[in-house]
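Record type: monomer structure entry
Structure origin: computed from sequence
Chain ID: A
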Amino acid sequence: MQTLSLSRTLISAAVASAFALAAVNASADLSSRYVDNDGDMIADVPSDESQWVDPDTLVFAYTPVEDPAVYADVWSDFLDHLSEATGKKVQFFPVQSNAAQQEALRAGRLHVAGFNTGGVPVAVNCGGFRPFAMMAAEDGSFGYEMEIITYPGSGIEAVEDLEGRQLAFTSETSNSGFRAPSALLRSEYGMEAGEDFETAFSGSHDNSILGVVNEDYDAAAIANSVGKRMISAAWLTKVITRLFIPPIPSPPLPTVWLIT
């Protein structure tokens, strides 16, 4: 199997800007099922304690990833800690789609969850989700970048070359896989999905990556954290090389990868 390498070009998109884009695209109105008396745009904990739930088993789910079953082991230490801290059994629930995770939360079958960036506003407004923490490295750093990838020989050497081609997104709830690239292409390049380029929805970042590798898609918008995980796990047998594009000044924008 070939050694895999990554070289990013164009400009970087920090996850901080992704958060802002998610907020712009989401309604600030909570479902009528909830109240927000303190005005923090998050559902209040019921003042009537009889409305609180106290399940014997807490169910945890992480946003859909390459192989949900694998993440049961990745989260095992956290689940053990949660069980020890609460005195309850904790069950890992592998979800296959963002929609399934959102519905499980709304229906009360999911108690603790890690949502993708773009899904947080939906979870808050429709499922009563109360965000309280985010993942970070030991040094306090956090975030990922949205990147657009293509394959060699595709004829795409700059973002403008996407015109008339097909760009794969992941799902409409994904920030890096849909909202951020859509906003960027519209604001910085005047390109509208369905007008200037065709779209497809792969369902996940790994599907988009593999679709580009197999040349099923001309290009795809992905979260680079997923690409790095797939490469480190040797899921890809292709080498990602540098596609040179002059940098664009801030605000930070995405990078483009060329897969060879």
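Annotation 1: Confidence is low (pLDDT under 50) at residues 1-27, 239-255.
Annotation 2: The longest strand covers residues 57-62.
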